[in-house]
Amino acid sequence: MPADGQSAAPATAPTSSKGMLWTGRVLSGLVILFLLMGGVIGLMKIPENVEKFKQYGYPAESGTWIPVTLLTCTLLYAIPRTAILGAILLTGYLGGATATHVRAGEPFFFPIVVGVVAWLGLFLRDSRLRSLLLNP
């Protein structure tokens, strides 16, 4: 009981409209499809991709583990129960992608945009996250 004698009101999760929920699902779905495609293409060992890994300074073996990491993080993001963990891990992955592009002198905004859209989609579709962020 608070010191002023009033009972504390329980924190409630912000409600979501159908439009907000579906917008979140669509945004998350686009991110998931894009990242799954990137992970699968990475596993295909396309010669251009292998060469690009070498140009970035990564060893050839990382051409397997980096796409596996991407696919794992994306699947965690796609499963509602683990979506927040997946978003956190994807943020780290995309931060590494951003750093790689900066180091190579290439445009680096795209991984940042993907990360922002991933979090926006999750925010719109997950009331737990909205409650955590909007009810301090």
Describe this structure in words.
The protein is an all-alpha fold and 136 residues long. It has one domain (18-134). 72% of the residues lie in helices and 0% in strands. The protein has 6 helices and no strands. It has helices at residues 18-43, 47-55, 62-78, 83-103, 109-125, 127-134. α1 (18-43) runs antiparallel to α3 (62-78) and α4 runs antiparallel to α5. It starts with 17 loop residues before the first helix and ends with a helix. The relative contact order is 0.17.
Summed up, what is this model?
This protein has 136 residues and is an all-alpha fold. Helices cover 72% and strands 0% of the residues.
Q: Shape from CA axes?
A: elongated
**Helix/sheet category:** mainly alpha
Largest sheet: none
DSSP summary, beta strand count: 0
Amino- and carboxy-terminal Cα gap: 18 Å
Alpha plus pi helix count: 6
- Based on CA atoms alone, the radius of gyration comes out at 19 Å
Portion of residues within helices: over 70%
What is the element string, with H for helices and E for strands?
HHHHHH
Unreliable sequence segments:
none
Rounded average pLDDT: 89
Tally of structural domains:
1
